[in-house]
Every structure is written in structure tokens, then in C-alpha cells.
């Protein structure tokens, strides 16, 4: 049965961070629940709903940003104490708003994640995990990469404290005290953790995780190892997952999985069978979902899903029917309720308009005085710059608390702007002069009214690095702009992976010199994405990467004074050699560079590229034939006389054009990669073969794999 859900907007608070809204336990079965939310103005707001209106219970004074909000209390009792993380402090409030706790932790950074279980408090900064019991320090752990979330398995079920950290390097770290028990590899960087069914399932060991690339999974955390139960990919190419809850919204006696994503999608997954969950319903909001909860908020007896969005809107999807079946008396009652609501909204709007006029006049007067000081309005921008594995492109998502007027994008590295289906902004390109000021891209996105979220896609070229800058201008007065910068790294299309195929033919680059572990780590951070900025613990570290465009791989192992880089793509080794030697020269460090080139690796890379090259050449040929075939169709009327392959081109014309439009310069990129591979192969032999490139391009046009390999061998 498809759930019938109606949208209700209750209230707007300040900008909210991830997991900062909760529902307090109900006083009775099917009774309405109070909502508590913390925003980035530092205000904790608790309210209930009466006759469709938000009625405040308490509201705290503004202060530093609230990064997390959790409910707590003694084990096996209603969890109705409110705990908020502000900077490196934790504050506690009763459900009436009385502050009973102000705990200054020993963390030097702001709290990023928090979980509460009875008297146990679990806190995480960027890399540091701390466990406190009754505000006394118990355990400490330093993670190898950034911590995004934390939870603890229910103590009453597993009979021990088992914290689980969701870390940026695609790993869940299971702890015991201050020690790492084991690691669980997951398919993407985990951003959020939740107990399955709200209680960890029958065993108390089951946790659900959501990743930044939109994947969802459940794993069982036993005392010795993790057992994966199910995993759902992101076939619909939706946003990353920010929040998860379990609640029986369908009323079938089984709790559904509620998921909130950063592209505004709310999803309901139903467990029809005992195996994988099935997507039953989804609902799109216009901004990212920071928190999600299932409960009874608006009216007794009617369940709903409550979501808190980035800009602070608390929006419900309620099972209460909008148009009720009933007699004229009930209809009259509803209309009277609506009339009073409309009149109160009108009064509020009139008062706001008067207030705006008064403030505008005051600003005009103060700006014209001799002692006037111009004030730049502050606004929050929520941004995310991530590499998509599926199409080897970068997504830049910009979200502003108010409507966006325009976004100017500039880059000093060559980038292709790709089409995004969800993007309704009008884009205009400006001509760039790349020689004197290294300006390769200059484009302006003009947004439609009420657009608060903009998604852009760019594709970079490996070996060409620089900075992408986004100038964000919202629709506020006086006009102001924020600049956000994103690094395009030399090996920008590489993504971290858990393991690589060791049987492939590999080329090796070896570095030796008087450099520290921290120095070589900073060079690797400069070259490759998804490497933690903090120098890893220990004396040696190994990272594995995969090229999202070609599928080639890279292994980096380094310590103080030496580094080893292995790849099946000789161009990757060439880029690393050039960039690392340049970075060492900047610091006046003398490097001893040696390399071992495997001739077989070039043939292996060509075999990886060739199917992609063949497909793109065929696509380009088909697209070039479409106009001629359509003209023939118009003149002849009937195209049955055409060969089947030409008829299929006409039938699939729209899809072919759409695919070609989505991937501009794809064929040129592949030509460029093969040309670089050819030049790099002979560069390591000390031979300059740039004069033979035109002949190589002729062979590429013929698309003959054996001829191409023979040319590489004979040159």
C-alpha cells in the first residue's frame, strides 16, 4: 500500500547542522510529541503543535554554533534529557528547558559527533575519539582519518561498551576501550550511523550506515568480526545520506527505514522480506535534509515524518488526511480553522513588511551620515566538492540559507563543465586568456528565484592542477559575495580504495632523500585526493587508489627518507615524478629518483582504454549521422529501405544526443591520454617522440587495437 503523506511546514529556526533535531518521548500512546532542535545561532528551541500552530515550550539564548543534539537518560527509562554539543562543551537541559549540565571537555577542537548511552558520553572531534562516564575521562583513540559519526551498541543487549566510528577513509572502526578491535570496509565514505530498528535488532549488534555517495548498508558488529547483511547502491544518482531513523510510518507493525539525503530527498524503505529493504516512497524537498525523525507531531493519532532542513525549516510529512470525509459541520469547522490561520498569517506578514520598511529607512539614514560604517551581511554557505566514481567527474554542491542570485566559477586549471539535469540555472561563458593569468574557465550561473541549492559538475585533466573558485552572491541587500576555493590535484581522478590487483604489470617510482615523514605525507596530500591532512601515526603508511576514468591503479608506500609509488599506468608515474621533484625543489631537498618501467604495463593500459575509445568513436559517428538520416526521413517519409543499423540510429537519436551532450570532449580526453602514454613511455627512455604524435592520431582514427599496440612497440 502506497502511503498517503501530506506536507506541513511548521516552523523555521536558524541554519541547522546534521543530526540536531529530535522528538521527545510521548506522554501516552499516540499522543503528540514535542520537537527539540538546535541551530547554528546557538539557540535550542523546543515546541509542540496545537491546532496546527507551533507553541514554544522553551527557547535558549543565542550563542556559539550547535553541532549535535542527542537525547539521553538512565538506561531503560524514557530518554527525555536534551544534550547539545557547542564548540568543545556539552550542555544538558531538561524537557522544560532548565540547564542541569555544563561540561567543558578536554578536547582542543570542536565536537563533530556525539552519542549518549546512560551515563556514557561518546565524543569525536576531527580525528580524536573520547569516552566519558559521568563526565570522567575513560578512553581515548586517535583515528587514521576524519571521524564523521559515532554510536555505541546497546549495552543492555551486548553487555559491553562497543563504540563504532564512521571514518572518511571508507571504514567503520570498532573499538574496545582505547584500542581498535577491528575495521569494517564499506563501499563509500560513511557519513551517518544508526542502530537497526532503533535498537540494534534482536541481537543489538546491527547498525545501518549511509555514505556520502548515497549508498546504504547494514552490518552486524560481533565481538570478533563484522558480518555484512545487505547493501543498497545509488542507481538513481541521488545525494549523499545525512540522517537515518527507524519508524513504522506505514502502520504494518514493522519499522520502516527513513533516510534523508543532501539533495533534499526523503526516502522510506520497507522490509517486505527478511532480506533487503525496498524503496516504497520518496519525497523531494528543495534543500538538504539535516535531520529526520518519525513520530506523532501535528495531531493525536496521526503519525508523520519530521525533517529539519539546512536553512532551518521543520517540515512534516503527515498521514493526517488533508480533505476529510465528513458532513458539512466538520467542513465548516475546518474552514473556520483555516480562516483564522490565514488572518493571523496576514497580520504577521503586514507587521513584517512594516518592520522591513522601518529598518530600510534606518539603514539609509545611517549610511548617509558622516560616521557611516558599511556592514557586510553574514550568510552561511554549505558546500561539498566530491569525485563521482561513476562518471569520473567532480560535483560541486553549493547551498545557501537564502536565495542565490548568481555564482561565478573561475579556474586556473583546464576543466570541462558538464550538464546537470537538476540544474535550472542559466549558464553563460566568458572568453578566457589563459596565457598571462592562467585563466582557463570563467562561467556565470544565474539562478531562478528561490533557488537555494546549486549543483555543478566539472571534469579535470590529470597532470594539470590548480584551484577552482566559486563566487557565491545571494539575493540580499547590500550585495555581498563569498569566495570558496577547491583544489584540483595533479592526480585528481584517483579515488581511495581498500585493495588493488597485485597481478597487474606495475611500474615503480622510488624516492630517497633527507625528508621527514610529515614532508613526504604533505607531498602525497598535494598530489592525491582523499588523503587525510594529518600525518598518520606510526613510521610507515600505504594507500591504494583507483583511477575512476580508466580503472588503472596506484599503490603508495612511504616513510621518513623514502617513498615507493607503483602503478600500471606509466602516465601516473610520470605525473608523480614531475610534481614530487618540483615540491622537493621548492623546499631545497635533494631527491634521488629511480624508476623501474614495465613494458607490458603500456600494452595493459592500452587494452583498458581501447573499449572506451571504440565506444566513444562509434557514438560520435552515430551522432554525426543523425541530421542526415532525419533529413532523409523528412524527404522520403518512410525509412524502411534503410539498413537496420541506420534505422536503430534514428530510433535512438534522442538518447544518443543526450549521452553525447552529457560527455563533451570525452573522445578528445581519451586521445589525450593515449598521446600522453606514448610520450611518457619514451620519456623514461630519454627519447622525445612528439614529432610522431600526428601519425599516432591517424592510427587512433582507425581504431585498430593491434595496430595501436604495434605502433607503440615499433616507435
UniProtKB/TrEMBL annotation:
**Which regions form coiled coils?**
335-369
- Keyword Iron-sulfur appears in the UniProt entry: no
Question: Domain BBS7 platform, which positions?
Answer: 494-596
Q: Does the keyword Coiled coil apply?
A: yes
Question: Gene Ontology cellular component?
Answer: axoneme; BBSome; ciliary basal body; membrane; neuron projection
BBS7 helical hairpin domain residues are 599-712
Q: What region holds the BBS7 beta-propeller domain?
A: 21-319
Tell me which Gene Ontology terms the entry assigns under biological process.
intracellular protein localization; non-motile cilium assembly
Which UniProt keywords are listed?
Coiled coil
List, for all copies, the residue spans of the domain called BBS7 GAE.
377-486
User: Which InterPro entries would you find in this protein's record?
Assistant: Bardet-Biedl_syndrome_7_prot (IPR016575), BBS7_GAE_dom (IPR056334), BBS7_hairpin (IPR056335), BBS7_pf_dom (IPR056333), Beta-prop_BBS7 (IPR056332), WD40_repeat_dom_sf (IPR036322)
User: What is the official name of this protein in its record?
Assistant: BBS7 protein
User: What species was this sequence derived from?
Assistant: Pteruthius melanotis
Amino acid at each position: 500500500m502506497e502511503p498517503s503523506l501530506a506536507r506541513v511546514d511548521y516552523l523555521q529556526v536558524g541554519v541547522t547542522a546534521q543530526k540536531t533535531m529530535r522528538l521527545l518521548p510521548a506522554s501516552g500512546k499516540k499522543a503528540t510529541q514535542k520537537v527539540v532542535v538546535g541551530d547554528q545561532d546557538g539557540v535550542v528551541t523546543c515546541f509542540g503543535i496545537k491546532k496546527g500552530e507551533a507553541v514554544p515550550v522553551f527557547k535558549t539564548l543565542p550563542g556559539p554554533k550547535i553541532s549535535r543534539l542527542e537525547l539521553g537518560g538512565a538506561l531503560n527509562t524514557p530518554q527525555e534529557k536534551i544534550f547539545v554539543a557547542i564548540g568543545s562543551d556539552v550542555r544538558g537541559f531538561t524537557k522544560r528547558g532548565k540547564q542541569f549540565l555544563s561540561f567543558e571537555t578536554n578536547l582542543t577542537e570542536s565536537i563533530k559527533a556525539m552519542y549518549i548511552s546512560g551515563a556514557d558520553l561518546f565524543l569525536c572531534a576531527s580525528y580524536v575519539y573520547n569516552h566519558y562516564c559521568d563526565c570522567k575521562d575513560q578512553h581515548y583513540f586517535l583515528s587514521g582519518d576524519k571521524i564523521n559519526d559515532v554510536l555505541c551498541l546497546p549495552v543492555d543487549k551486548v553487555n559491553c561498551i562497543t563504540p563504532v566510528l564512521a571514518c572518511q577513509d571508507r571504514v567503520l572502526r570498532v573499538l574496545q576501550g582505547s584500542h581498535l578491535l577491528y575495521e569494517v570496509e564499506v563501499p563509500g565514505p560513511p557519513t551517518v550511523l544508526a542502530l537497526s530498528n532503533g535498537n540494534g535488532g534482536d541481537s543489538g549488534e546491527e547498525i545501518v550506515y549511509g555514505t556520502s555517495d548515497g549508498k546504504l548498508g547494514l552490518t552486524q558488529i560481533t565481538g570478533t568480526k563484522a558480518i555484512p547483511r545487505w547493501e543498497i547502491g545509488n542507481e538513481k544518482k541521488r545525494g549523499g545520506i545525512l540522517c537515518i531513523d527507524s519508524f513504522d510510518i506505514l502502520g504494518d507493525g514493522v519499522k520502516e527505514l527513513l533516510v534523508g539525503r543532501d539533495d533534499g530527498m526523503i526516502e522510506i524503505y520497507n522490509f517486505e522480506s527478511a532480506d533487503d529493504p525496498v524503496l516504497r516512497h520518496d519525497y523531494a524537498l528543495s534543500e538538504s535534509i539535516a535531520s529526520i525523525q518519525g513520530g506523532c507531531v501535528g495531531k493525536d493519532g496521526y503519525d508523520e515524518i519530521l525533517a529539519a532542513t539546512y536553512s532551518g525549516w521543520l517540515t512534516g510529512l503527515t498521514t493526517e488526511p488533508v480533505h476529510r470525509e465528513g458532513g458539512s459541520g466538520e467542513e465548516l469547522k475546518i474552514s473556520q480553522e483555516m480562516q483564522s490561520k490565514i488572518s493571523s498569517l496576514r497580520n504577521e506578514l503586514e507587521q513584517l513588511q512594516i518592520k522591513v520598511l522601518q529598518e530600510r529607512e534606518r539603514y539609509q539614514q545611517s549610511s548617509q551620515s558622516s560616521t557611516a560604517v558599511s556592514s557586510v551581511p553574514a550568510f552561511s554557505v554549505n558546500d561539498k566538492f566530491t569525485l563521482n566514481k561513476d562518471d569520473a567527474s567532480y560535483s560541486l554542491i553549493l547551498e545557501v540559507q537564502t536565495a542565490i542570485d548568481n555564482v561565478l566559477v573561475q579556474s586556473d586549471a583546464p576543466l570541462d563543465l558538464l550538464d546537470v539535469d537538476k540544474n535550472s540555472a542559466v549558464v553563460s561563458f566568458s572568453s578566457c586568456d589563459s596565457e598571462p593569468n592562467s585563466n582557463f574557465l570563467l562561467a556565470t550561473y544565474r539562478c531562478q528565484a528561490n533557488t537555494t541549492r546549486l549543483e555543478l559538475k566539472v571534469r579535470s585533466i590529470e597532470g594539470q592542477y590548480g584551484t577552482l573558485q566559486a563566487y557565491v552572491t545571494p539575493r540580499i541587500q547590500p550585495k555581498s559575495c563569498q569566495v570558496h576555493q577547491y583544489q584540483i590535484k595533479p592526480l585528481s581522478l584517483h579515488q581511495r580504495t581498500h585493495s588493488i590487483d597485485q597481478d597487474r604489470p606495475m611500474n615503480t617510482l622510488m624516492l630517497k632523500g633527507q625528508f621527514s615523514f610529515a614532508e613526504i605525507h604533505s607531498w602525497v596530500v598535494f598530489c592525491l585526493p582523499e588523503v587525510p591532512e594529518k600525518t598518520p601515526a606510526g613510521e610507515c603508511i600505504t594507500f591504494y587508489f583507483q583511477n575512476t576514468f580508466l580503472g588503472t591503479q596506484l599503490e603508495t608506500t612511504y616513510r621518513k627518507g623514502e617513498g615507493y609509488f607503483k602503478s600500471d599506468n606509466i602516465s601516473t608515474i610520470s605525473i608523480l615524478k614531475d610534481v614530487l621533484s618540483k615540491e622537493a625543489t621548492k623546499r631545497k631537498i635533494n631527491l634521488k629518483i629511480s624508476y623501474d618501467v614495465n613494458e607490458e604495463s603500456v600494452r595493459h593500459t592500452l587494452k583498458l582504454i581501447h573499449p572506451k575509445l571504440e565506444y566513444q568513436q562509434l557514438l560520435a559517428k552515430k551522432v554525426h549521422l543523425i541530421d542526415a538520416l532525419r533529413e532523409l526521413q523528412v524527404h522520403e517519409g518512410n525509412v524502411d529501405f534503410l539498413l537496420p543499423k541506420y534505422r536503430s540510429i534514428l530510433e535512438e537519436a534522442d538518447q544518443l544526443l543526450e549521452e553525447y551532450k552529457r560527455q563533451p570532449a570525452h573522445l578528445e580526453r581519451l586521445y589525450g591520454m593515449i598521446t600522453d602514454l606514448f610520450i611518457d613511455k619514451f620519456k623514461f627512455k630519454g627519447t622525445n617522440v612528439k614529432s610522431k604524435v600526428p601519425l599516432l592520431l591517424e592510427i587512433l582514427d582507425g581504431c585498430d587495437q593491434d595496430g595501436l599496440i604495434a605502433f607503440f612497440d615499433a616507435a
